Amino acid sequence: MDQLNWTYNNTIFSEDMIGDNYGFVYEITDPNGRKYIGKKFFYSSKTKQVKGKKKKMKVSSDWKTYFGSNEELKGELSKQGKENFTREILYFCKSKAECSYVEAREQFTRKVLESEDYYNGHIQVRVHGSHIKNKLGS
Q1: What pLDDT shows up at residue 138?
Q2: What is the pLDDT of residue 130?
Q3: 47 within 8 A of 112, measured Cβ to Cβ
Q4: How much is the pLDDT for 131?
Q5: Using an 8 Å Cβ cutoff, are 8 and 88 in contact?
């Protein structure tokens, strides 16, 4: 399986599978088994001037080529080659808040800050309960 692709349930993930999902929580694994847990959004909002008025537009993010924001991980990607890392989608999320919550939940559950098995160096989340109650998918 091509390591430069995202996978979900052992299947290569493609853009036509996004559906109504806002983003995803992922795991990147290096050749030695060390991992990184993060989140990525499929889209971002940009504002553009149209006839003198600001218009909000939804644009595709760099999710297809994204390999995480952690500096140590980026260094290892340069040393070992992106093709030697796997990128797996763990969960799809319907909103930004859901992505933030599920990412943090996964990081705490895996104890990423307590283990050298993960690149994660911090957990940052700010989510209000009303944003996720009865909305979480799996």
Answers
A1: 45
A2: 76
A3: no
A4: 67
A5: yes
Phi, psi of 78, rounded to the nearest 5 degrees: -65, -40
Structure tokens belonging to residue 31? 């050749």
CB 93 within 8 A of CB 25: yes
State the Cα–Cα distance between residues 113 and 81, nearest whole angstrom: 25
**Backbone φ, ψ for residue 87 (5° rounding):** -125, 115
Q: What is the pLDDT at residue 1? A: 43
Alpha-carbon dihedral sign for residues 77, 100, 123, 90: negative
What tokens were used for 48?
């553009």
Among 15, 28, 58, 23, smallest CA distance to 39 is for: 23
Q: How far apart are CA 93 and CA 25, in angstroms?
A: 8
Strand-pairing partners, residue 36, are 28
Q: According to the model, what pLDDT value does residue 137 have?
A: 55
Return all residues near 42 (Cβ < 8 A) that are at least 6 apart. Answer: 18, 21, 22, 23, 24, 60, 61, 63
The CA angle 132-28-92, to the nearest 5 degrees, is 30
Residues of the chain short of pLDDT 70, as ranges, are 1-3, 131, 133-138
pTM of the model: 0.85
